[in-house]
Amino acid sequence: MVKAMIDISEEANKVLNVVKAKNSLKTKSEAINVIAEEYSEKVLHHRLRPERETPKRQISF
């Protein structure tokens, strides 16, 4: 486990509190992990595996 001391905006703090409450988490660290996992699944894996993308349709005019 990596320990980090971070400075976040008030808005980011509110988001962490919402994620924490919505997922019944005990700490903001757990909320950060949830956000990181979702980002990883939705953004990073999608970009790293372009073969999983659906082909784009060509639109002709």
Estimate the global geometry from the Cα principal axes. Answer: globular
- SSE class: mainly alpha
Characterize the largest beta sheet: strand count, sense, and whether it forms a barrel. Answer: none
The number of helical elements comes to: 2
- The amount of beta strand, in percent, is under 5%
Alpha carbon gap, first and last residue = 55 Å
Q: What is the number of beta strands?
A: 0
Percentage of residues assigned to helices: 55-70%
Low-confidence stretches: none
SSE arrangement, N to C: HH
In summary, what is this structure?
With 61 residues, this protein is mostly helical. It is 56% helix and 0% strand.
Report on the structure:
This protein is mainly α and 61 residues long. The protein is built from two helices and no strands. Helix 1 packs across helix 2 (28-48). The longest helix has 21 residues, at 28-48. It is globular and about 35 Å long. The termini are far apart. The mean pLDDT is 83.
Question: What secondary-structure arrangement, pairings included, does this model have?
Answer:
Blueprint: H1 10-22, H2 28-48
Helix pairs in contact: 1-2
Q: Any key phrases for this structure?
A:
single chain; 61 residues; mainly alpha; 2 helices; globular
